[in-house]
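Appendix C reproduces, verbatim, an entry submitted by the partner laboratory led by Prof. M.T., so that reviewers can inspect both the input and the predicted structure.
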Amino acid sequence: MNTALAAAPFAPDTAAEVWRRFAEPWTAWNHLRTAAASLAFLALAAAAGLALRG
């Protein structure tokens, strides 16, 4: 993506389009990574809780 941004002309319309094509999928994948990390933390917390209960 950095290559596409660097290769884009400095015209505002072109830069905005390149950024839009980057930002939409990046945001979706970022939400997925956040959800996965949250679930992993919950699993770790549950395992720790079970281990402490004995």
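The chain has a mean pLDDT of 89. Additional entries are available on request from the coordinating office.
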